[in-house]
Write a sequence for this structure.
């Protein structure tokens, strides 16, 4: 687990090449799954189209449980892309981790706080953007003083807390999962009996990690829509 | 074998380039998927929704139509049944009337025939009486000629008359 991140300087910015690789891989997989499953669209859905439509309905229900569909409909595509991307990212680190030359190359992109925090900040920024766009700047500003004026400092803190918890929750879950997987695979499995002893907990933890990966993707999108609803609906 | 650094946020160094890369990739992914996957998928889902709505509407319409037609058919059947009933009733009435008429006609006919027969009998009788009278006259003439041929006593004459009458009665 003591692997270095493969850092590189480019245009004066520091890039973690492992992140760059895994972000690209995750995006490519999401894109391939989505495009391949929607290539032969039919009125009577079959196979993968059913799966994609199920995801669409799933996200639609998440949005509907937070706001009315008239305002929420425009976040549908964001929600589907987000849930697919986060879920695939979470699963990527599960089957294996690749290290080369003491550098850790293959892992979940969401096991890095910089990636999850980027997504979280992006989501929060979007909520503010849509809050201003849909309700106007005056209403948006007034929302910081509701329901009581003296809550204003709390409201400001809430925004930062939301951002931090949204990103770090995802990072923590996935990173912890990978650490434990690495421990089970690398440290416990030493020698013949070590391997035997490691099989069952590894299997159990892998299954649990798949579950956590799905749940965390769901939670991420759910909270995105909750924060969005706070900003764009007028009944709060 | 672990250093604390592995658990410290950002201990591996802050790579600001990743932020930009992640943002750019996500936005690109969003745009690509919108164009190539979600857009068409949403289109087909909307299309299906419309299709189903249309089908339901059509089914509703045809159901109403069928109901209306059924009602119409039922009405027609009822009318037809009523008509048939009326026809039968009429026929029966007509039959009754005809029977009455026939019976009346037959009765009148028989009356007439009886009348005619009676008249005929009367005529026959008259004719018979006439014939008898003629016969009597002839006999009288015959008797008279016999009387002329032979002198008769009163008793003989009476006897002769009786005989003649008896003979006439036998002739009859």
């Amino acid at each position: 687990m003591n692997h270095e991140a493969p850092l590189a300087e480019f245009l004066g910015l520091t890039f973690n090449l492992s992140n760059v690789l895994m972000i690209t891989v995750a995006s490519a997989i999401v894109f391939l799954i989505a495009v391949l499953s929607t290539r032969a669209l039919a009125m009577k859905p079959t196979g993968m189209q059913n799966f994609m439509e199920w995801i669409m309905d799933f996200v639609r229900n998440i949005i509907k449980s937070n706001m009315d569909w008239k305002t929420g409909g425009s976040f549908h595509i964001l929600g589907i892309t987000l849930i697919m991307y986060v879920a695939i990212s979470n699963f990527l680190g599960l089957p294996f981790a690749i290290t080369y030359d003491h550098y850790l190359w293959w892992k979940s992109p969401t096991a890095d706080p910089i990636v999850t925090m980027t997504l979280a900040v992006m989501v929060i920024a979007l909520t503010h953007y849509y809050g201003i766009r849909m309700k106007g700047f005056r209403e948006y500003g007034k929302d910081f003083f509701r329901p009581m004026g003296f809550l204003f400092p709390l409201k400001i803190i809430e925004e930062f807390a939301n951002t931090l918890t949204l990103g770090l929750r995802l990072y923590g879950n996935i990173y912890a999962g990978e650490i434990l997987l690495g421990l089970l695979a690398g440290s416990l499995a030493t020698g013949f009996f070590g391997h035997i002893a490691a099989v069952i907990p590894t299997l159990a933890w892998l299954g649990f990690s798949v579950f956590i990966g799905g749940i965390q993707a769901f939670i991420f999108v759910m909270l995105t829509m909750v924060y969005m609803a706070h900003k764009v609906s007028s009944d709060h | 074998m672990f250093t604390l650094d592995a658990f410290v946020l950002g201990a591996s160094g802050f790579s600001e380039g990743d932020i930009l890369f992640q943002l750019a990739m996500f936005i690109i992914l969003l745009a690509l998927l919108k164009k190539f996957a979600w857009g068409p998928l949403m289109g087909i889902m909307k299309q299906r929704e419309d299709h189903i709505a249309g089908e339901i509407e059509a089914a509703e319409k045809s159901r109403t139509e069928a109901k209306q037609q059924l009602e119409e058919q039922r009405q027609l059947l009822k009318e037809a049944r009523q008509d048939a009933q009326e026809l039968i009733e009429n026929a029966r009435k007509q039959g009754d009337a005809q029977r009455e008429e026939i019976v009346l006609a037959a009765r009148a006919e028989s009356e007439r025939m009886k009348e005619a027969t009676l008249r005929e009998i009367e005529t026959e009788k008259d004719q018979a009486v006439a014939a008898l009278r003629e016969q009597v006259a002839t006999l009288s003439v015959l008797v008279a000629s016999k009387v002329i041929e032979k002198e008769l006593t009163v008793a003989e004459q009476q006897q002769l008359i009786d005989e003649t009458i008896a003979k006439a009665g036998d002739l009859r």
Observations:
- The radius of gyration of chain B is 66 Å.
